[in-house]
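User: Fold this; tokens only.

Assistant: Input:
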Amino acid sequence: MDIELRHLRYFVAVADELHFGRAARRLHLAQPPLSQQIRKLEEILGCQLFLRTSRAVRLTAAGEAFLERARRTLSNVQDDMQEARSIGRGEQGLLRVGFISSAMLTVVPRTFGTYRRRFPKVQLQLFESYTASVMRSLTSGEIDVGILRDGGPANGLHVEPLLSEPYVAVLPKRHPLAASNSISAAALRDEPFVFHAPSAGTRAFEKPMSIFEEHGFRPQIVQEAPQWLTLLRLVGAGLGVTVAPACVEKIVLNDVVCVRLRGVKARSDLELAYREGEHRAIVKGFAEILRSGVGRVKS
């Protein structure tokens, strides 16, 4: 027969009270069933835990040793139950979040801080990458949540827009169009472009390209780079121009200007993604904070 937790609780109560009647009242039991359970526990262990006389009850040497372990076991079980409840509520555990670099130019970093303060027992791990890589990591289970740029629909993933922003043309400061308040995308027809590689995200690449295709041309990309800061420095050095979500204006230096594109309907979407069927409270809690943080900025 295996020892059950109730055996330990009964034993600890009798050991505390050194009186079967008082222990029974404490446990809301009748005394005979309590005495029976203690005898069963002694049978399981193969040794006597209490010395009983008509006047007193006291622990044997084996009982004293077992009492310490019984208390520790009950305490550990209580701690484990509390931890399981905490994990079930999303208050504890590991959360792995992949994000694209341009998300750092929005309200997203602030929501990371909010989440960490609200859920200090959650181990939040952040991984910076590009949209296609974040989506692959989500699908494979390497991360739990993704923050994408124009990822769009994907099999097995729930993808929802968080915020939408216009595209701007990014030009060297000495470019003839740099002083303009706005320009047509057609004005960049003959310009060399620097831009992300298509492998970073097909939709994130094709959406801005469609802006120029509406004017009958596709930009000639002379240099690719993985990060917006690199692209901006290349533009500033005169290697070409580019098109970027408006948030990139936050990191331009004095050798680059951002100019509004006239008549452009396409917009760049920052998106939240996680696996379809995701039900864990830890993911839901993060998503709620992210939506709330972005929503306050939009309103």
